[in-house]
Amino acid sequence: MESRPRHLFSAVFGLLMAVILSAEAAAQFGSPQSRQPRAEELARPTVFLDRHTIGPGETGHVVILFDIRDSWRLYWKNPGAGALPPDFSLEVPDGFETDEFVWPRPVLIEGRTGDMYCYEDQVAFFLPFTAPPALTDDTVTINVDMTWAVCDENMCLFGRSSPELTIRTTSEVVDDRRSDLEDDKKKLIEKHAARQPTMVHRGSLETGARIEINDQQLILTGPSHGRTEGRFFPYDSTGVSYELRDLSFDREEESFRAVIDLKIDAVDASRGLPTLGGIVVLGDDPSDASYEFHVPFPATLLPSSE
Q1: Is the separation of the CB atoms in 280 and 247 below 8 Å?
Q2: Which domains does the chain show, CATH number per domain?
Q3: Distance separating alpha carbons of residues 244 and 205, to the nearest angstrom
Q4: pLDDT for 102 beyond 60
Q5: The pTM is what?
Q6: Which tens digits make up the pLDDT trace of 145-161?
């Protein structure tokens, strides 16, 4: 479960760490009293499980909570003009499975080099794992590997952590997975779960939202929950660029309509088609509604060979 190819992040991570450590050594040589802040201090991670016990076929989450210092930020899956997003992976026991996680809704910060898609103050990521259909009464270990860039207007620092978590397994289904979870963790989970966008699938109306793709235009509609303003954050889709043509609201129907132009720059079908995706966020509060779409690239959008 990785947000980007790990070899790329590791290479960039190693190079930038070398530069940062060299700068830190020089600064300390010139001023023995000074100390470069560490990434783990500027974006302090707390890692825990959303349940203490798991039964056959059940799903749990590794919760990675970052407390971010004022004026510093982490980045969304597409950082825009920002630095690298966090990268997470789980090592689970035999028979367990992991899956992609949902990125929380970001905020936009206008930087000197362009718009950055970020997280500030506090953000939590929920990394899912699922138990096999048969379990015994025992305990198992889940290993987490995580790297992240935390930046302000002038610099970025890079952190890494590899915590180990233990969870009880049982042969019986657990009726209330959070019944024995601490109250403070329950509150944190509830708070940050509200920041998860609603996933919208093409052809499905389960969420009350829907996607249409007409020619080179994507239209996303859905409930606005009383909000009358919003913003679009695009994926970084190879060969495709996005432009929000219009985001309108119907106050009486409490609905929104986002019209997004798709510019097909250089899609090579022989190398695989990109995924079209992005998130429309409504309102200003992190718990306001947001809708994410993640759809395969339609073959009808490929340039004609004629």
Answers
A1: yes
A2: 38-193 (2.60.40.1250), 198-301 (2.60.40)
A3: 23
A4: yes
A5: 0.85
A6: 999 999 999 999 999 99
DSSP 8-state symbol, 280:
E
Nearest to 119 by CA among 149, 74, 89: 74
Query: In the sheet that 74-80 helps form, which strands lie side by side, from edge to edge?
Result: 74-80, 114-119, 107-111
CA distance 151 to 120: 10
Give the β-pairing of 255-264 and 43-49: unpaired
What pLDDT, on a 0 to 100 scale, did the predictor assign at position 296?
A: 87
CA distance 278 to 257: 14
The pLDDT tens digits for 172-204 are: 988 777 777 899 999 999 999 999 999 998 766
Q: Under 8 Å CB-to-CB from 197, ≥6 apart: which residues?
A: 102, 103, 104, 105, 279, 281, 290, 291, 292
